[in-house]
Structures are given as C-alpha cells and as structure tokens.
Amino acid sequence: MKQLIDKLYTTNRLDTDEYLHILNNIDADTTQYLFEKARLVSMQHFGTDIYTRGLIEFTNYCKNNCYYCGIGAANTNADRYRLDLEDILSCCETGYELGFRTYVLQGGEDKHYSDDDIVEIITRIKQGYPDCAITLSVGEKSYASYQKFFNAGADRYLLRHETANEEHYKKLHPLNLSLTNRKQCLYDLKEIGFQVGTGFMVGSPYQTMENIVEDLLFIKEFNPHMVGIGPFIPHSETKFAKEAAGSLELTLLLIAVIRLMLPKALIPATTALGTINSQGREKGILAGANVVMPNLSPVSVRKKYSLYDNKICTGEEAAECRFCLSNRMQKIGYNLVVDRGDYKF
Ligand code: 5AD
Ligand code: FES
Q1: Helix H segments across 173-208?
Q2: Which CATH number characterizes residue 294's domain?
C-alpha cells in the first residue's frame, strides 16, 4: 500500500485498479502516511499560506432540480432572494477590508440575470477592486456567454462535474441535464482562458467506489486549476432527504489523493466538510487542502442559501468568520494570507 502512495507521490497518477485498491483497503497508519505526503506537497507549493475566497451567494433562485440540492426549483418552501448590484458591491467592500482578494459570485441558474447583468456586476467589481480576482459559479451557459464574462474581467469559474459516470449522473439529476453538456461547459471555460474548478460530492446517493475512481480519472484528464470536493449532506426538502451523508474519512482521503495527483491545484477545505465535523476544515488542510471559502453574503440571506441542512456560519458576520478561520488555521500552523491566490502556472 505504501508503495502505491509513493508511486502516486512521484508520478502523480495511478491506474484504475490501483486507485480502487487504495480506496477499498487503506488502513489508519497508511492513511496518516498519505496525509503526510499530501501535506508535504502542499508545503512545497504554498508553504503555510492558506488562500481565502469571499463567497457571495447572490441568488438562490434556480431553474434546475438536481435531486440533492435544497434550492432546486421544486422546493416551493425555499425562501427565495436576490442581491442587487449595490448589495453585492457592499459585500465586496466588507470583504476587501477584511483582506479578501478573491470574490466568488455564486448563485442558482437564475434566468432573472441576463448575460449583460452579470457583465455589469463583473465590470463594477473590477472597477472598484482592480486588484481582486473574480470567480463565477453560475452554472451551465453557452460558450458565447462564458466568453462575455471572461472579456468583462472574470478570472475563474467553478463548475463541479458532480459525477463522471453517466448512469450515476442520471440518478442525481433530471433528464434535461446531462454529463456531456456539463463536461462541454468545462472544456469551453478552459479554452476561453478561465482558471477552472471542478469537483464532486463524496458519498452522494448511489455513488460507488468505482464511480469515485472515474471522478479521479476525469479530474486527472481535465487537469483543472481548482478541485472542490465535499461530503454530500441531505437536505430535508429534497428527494434525497432520507439518504445518508458522505463521510469525513473518505472526503479527507480523496483530498489527499487529489493533492498528490495535482500538486499545484487549489483545493478548498469546504464548508460542507466543516458542517459534518467541527474540525472538518482543519482536517481538510492537514490532508492537503490549501484554500478556505468563508461567506461574505449578508447574514439576512445566509440561511436561505441552503443547499444542504445544518450549514455552518449562517449566523455569523463576515468578520467573525474571518477571525474564526484565522485562529483555526493558526492553531494548526497555517496562516490566512491577503492574496488573490491565483493558480501558479
Ligand atoms: N450536499 C453537499 N453538497 C451539495 N451541493 C449541492 N447540494 C449539496 C448537498 N446536498 C454542492 C454541489 C454543487 C455545489 C455548489 O454544492 O456539488 O456543485
Ligand atoms: Fe464562520 Fe467559524 S468560520 S464562525
């Protein structure tokens, strides 16, 4: 087993059977060995620096109905909101003062915002904060739309592939959504020149270890700049309300494996990871993650951006989370830095 981890460390890739062997058979000692290797690689590229991204959840309207997600259109109990341009700029101002140099604009697939509206948001943020990076996370769009956003100054784009297996994709999404289109979007974004992030949920319903290996192989082939993985957590108002959550252990193991596959990737210790375990984000960093993404949304809307139940930090102000995270990172020997945190090509 240790030889396999050494092979992954030195060559940054394994075969299907080898990944499967690790996932199915790794023991506690070897897991620690894997985390040490992953930390070593992170340390080589980022030292003790942890990059922060200020997340602005600007709309929870969504036309889609992904079976796992609490803000799908089918959830008529969701309390819907949209932030206007002034609200968004005010989040940016708060964020800037706190030391954020990347803003992540995330929302459901909300038809209310035209491409021009998104372009205006990007343009105004870039005018006010020219030293900051903008990451978009607004779902599947056409090549032309992505190009407009890029031309307006957006730097990065997050679009998790969710699962790289066609059959599994169909079990998580209604028929109008396809893995083919999702992958096309990812390739379009990369071609246009965005720093692109993809990823998947760990322990989503019907996921097998073989599916996870397909995710790893897809990630290696696509070679993203960022990889976001977090545990699936059920939401009470969705089709998957009664399903079990993904595990902390498997999520950490996969963070470490992905760090060894893509040494320079930007990998967040996600809020979902912090939700299933009170030390989840710290453990994520110690397994090779190097990014945290605290919330900059106004506290008045935070509970409404409910992708899954019991999400942390919905009652805290942005400043409280910044200080909290800064302390948490210092306790484990890392530091939040004031930096855009771009991918180092
Ligand atoms: N549990 C965990 N993660 C979720 N996401 C959506 N719903 C859930 C859930 N119930 C993730 C998806 C999406 C990202 C924004 O949040 O992977 O891409
Ligand atoms: Fe939000 Fe700790 S990060 S309260």
Answers
A1: 179-192
A2: 3.20.20.70
pLDDT value at residue 327: 98
- Residue 27, domain member (yes or no): no
pLDDT of 64-122, one tens digit each? 999 999 999 999 999 999 999 999 999 999 999 999 999 999 999 999 999 999 999 99
Q: Which of 283, 296, 234, 256 is nearest to 101 (CA)?
A: 296
120 found inside a domain: yes
Residues at CB less than 6 angstroms from ligand 1: 68-69, 160, 162, 201, 230, 232-233, 235, 272, 307-308
Q: Which residue range is the domain that position 53 belongs to? A: 49-244+288-337
Question: Is 32 within a domain?
Answer: no
Q: What atom in ligand 2 is closest to the CA of residue 325?
A: 3
pLDDT mean across residues, the chain: 98
Ligand approaching nearest to the C-alpha of 65: 1
